Amino acid sequence: MVRQELTPKEKQELKGQEQTRPGRFYVPAVDIWEDEDGLTVYADMPGVDPGKLSVELDADALTLGGEVALADYEGFAPLYTEYNVGHFQRRFSISDSSAYDRDRIQARFREGVLEVMVPRSASSKPRRIRIASA
Amino acid sequence: MALVSVNPFESLLELQRELERSLAAPYLNLEGGAQVFPPVNVFADEDSLVIRAEVPGFKTEDIGLTLARDCLTLTGKRQPEDHTKPGSYHRRERAFGSFSRSIQLPKDLDPEKASAQCLNGLLTVRIPKAEAAKPRQITVQASA
């Protein structure tokens, strides 16, 4: 049972990359898990419109993106704020990208978390070699 | 004649500027800067107070909301991901655990009519203003 208390972390702004549209972008917090099946990236993107998510895997990088819906704030006048809101984007270089099967990449979005599963290509899966007893 | 509310947020930048302006503005018992999880934003719309918090990865059943008089308490817990096969994390930035936060609310609200929704990791709590506190339109009579 998890006992630890959560503490707030300030949102990290995306720096050093110009966007064509005005507005601050944020870097989503991620967990990257790897097992024998492949890589799974979990990215926190709360408030993102599921229709405005993007996952791109090119030769050497995985780019995740998500846009918040401005309509969610229609008619609202801010009284007090502790966090700002903005679109998310994050890009990861994948070392040894040939070990992964780009065509079988899968993604799902649950409770504001984007889960991207990049499976290992069959040829790169670790094979168990049985040691024969003499 | 009803007031037409115009969405002033033409662009994300404008919304961000408005939120920035209210950043850490003193409000009731809330102090500037999020010291407690989750950070909240408080808005007013035509007839309600709206409180928003980002709670990605929290299942709706793991979030608790209690409203007592003028105090809103948010509690919740987030479980780490379940992995069936052995492996390792290359990066671990997301936090897991529990939280409990109380927010004092203004006294002119109607807690009976409070409602909440959690969609895509965004929790929105709406508490309408009490009838007596709503602005009333006064008809101007033409004097006889």
Notable characteristics:
heterodimer; A: 134 residues; mainly beta; Immunoglobulin-like; 5-stranded mixed β-sheet; 4-stranded antiparallel β-sheet; 10 strands; 0% helix; elongated; B: 144 residues; 3-stranded antiparallel β-sheet; 1 helix; 7% helix; 36% strand; disordered N terminus
Write structural notes for this entry:
By secondary structure, chain A is mainly β. Chain A has a domain at 25-73 and 84-124: Immunoglobulin-like (Sandwich). Chain A has no helices and ten strands. Chain A has strands at residues 12-13, 25-27, 30-35, 38-44, 48-57, 61-68, 77-81, 87-93, 106-110, 113-119. In chain A, a hairpin with a 2-residue loop joins strand 3 and strand 4. Chain A starts with 11 loop residues before the first strand and ends in a 15-residue tail after the last strand. The model of chain A has no long low-confidence stretch (mean pLDDT 86). By secondary structure, chain B is mainly β. Chain B has one helix and eight strands. In chain B, the strands form two sheets. A four-stranded antiparallel sheet of chain B has the order 1-2-8-7, with no helix packed on it. A three-stranded antiparallel sheet of chain B has the order 3-4-6, with no helix packed on it. In chain B, a hairpin with a 3-residue loop joins strand 1 and strand 2 (48-54). The chains are: A mainly beta (134), B mainly beta (144). Chains A and B meet through strand 3, strand 5 and strand 7 of A and helix 1, strand 1, strand 2, strand 5 and strand 6 of B.
Topology:
The complex is a heterodimer of chains A (134) and B (144).
Chain A: E1 12-13, E2 25-27, E3 30-35, E4 38-44, E5 48-57, E6 61-68, E7 77-81, E8 87-93, E9 106-110, E10 113-119
Parallel strand pairs in A: 2-8
Antiparallel strand pairs in A: 1-2, 3-4, 4-10, 5-6, 6-8, 9-10
Chain B: H1 12-21, E1 40-44, E2 48-54, E3 63-68, E4 71-78, E5 87-92, E6 97-104, E7 115-119, E8 122-128
Antiparallel strand pairs in B: 1-2, 2-8, 3-4, 4-6, 7-8
